[in-house]
Amino acid sequence: MKKRFVSMFLAAVMAGTMVAAVPVMAEEATEAATEAAAAATDVDLSDKKVGVCIYQFSDNFMTLFRTELENYLVELGFSKDNITIVDGVNDQATQSGQIDSFIADKVDVLIINPVNSSSAATITDKVVEAGIPLVYINREPDADEEARWEENNWNVTYVGCDARQSGTFQGELIADLGLDAIDKNGNGKVDYIMIEGDPENVDAQYRTEFSVKALEDAGLEVNELDDQVGNWDQATAQQLVANSLSQYGNDVEVVFCNNDAMALGALQSIEAAGRTVGEDIYLVGVDALSEALEDVLAGTMTGTVFNDHFSQSHSAADAAVRYLTGEGNEHYIGCDYVKVTKDNAQDVLDMVK
Fold first, then answer.
1. CA atoms within 13 A on the CB side of 4
2. pLDDT, tens digit, for every residue of 174-228?
3. DSSP at 77
4. Using CA atoms, how far apart are residues 312 and 319, in angstroms rounded to an integer?
5. Which of 15, 37, 288, 334 is in the most buried spot, having the most CB atoms within 10 Å?
6. Can you name the residues that pair with 284 across neighbouring β-strands?
7. pTM for the full model?
């Protein structure tokens, strides 16, 4: 069964009471950390070894995630010297070797952000065989893989948000503008280009699919002008969007990017082409990186979607503690995204800075 984890931050933003809730949230976060640490009193976490595999250190979002994860693990009582975080350099063979090394080193728990979600079954098998609890983060294995954890009662869980929600929010950010605002060429359609992340990544797949579905669900007719793979990379996206704008010119009305890094690259090309976000073209991303939030406030990005690295990293660490104390976890620990517009971008920016 999927368990919904909704942070105080998300609740506050969704309720439109972020400013008043900031001190409350800080207090709640401290209390949560204290409670989690108290739950671990039967186990001395200071001598427990944690292995963390990140698919790629250069990913902006995962940099935020791993930094917050390490800080929170230390806050819970783990020794920083016993927390090892490694860079998979976006290569599954490299990451697989790192996992083998962690197993040989007899770490007490593994937290893994897989390079390829399709490799999860192989990873799970070797980690479970070694008797090490496993927490997957950010990149969700498929339903069949998660079903195996449940059927075998393995100490394996996934912590993350449902990417379908982030895609839906992207589409809604555009749909909420109304066709009259979007349809600059007067053809009665939303003419868009899509810049995808890693095509093997389920987040990229869902964000691509559900952003367009949200437009259609709102009764808008869509027209895909271009769909390219930017692999989450700003420079790649910049070139791809430049190419699309050169080919389709003013017919491009919307640019969807699966993450903010690519949206930032897209913005560079949009401005270089003499287009103006908010006037003759619209641009959305996902993650709520600081630079993207500043662009939303400045009107140079239409909106983004906050991928809550605070609740995700804390939930991953808390799950690791529950395995070490013998409490155990459900096999899915979820959270919610937050739709970000100019109205709440400053509140989110104050939190992520």
1. 6
2. 999 999 999 999 999 999 999 999 988 889 999 999 999 999 999 999 999 999 9
3. T
4. 10
5. 288
6. 256, 303
7. 0.83
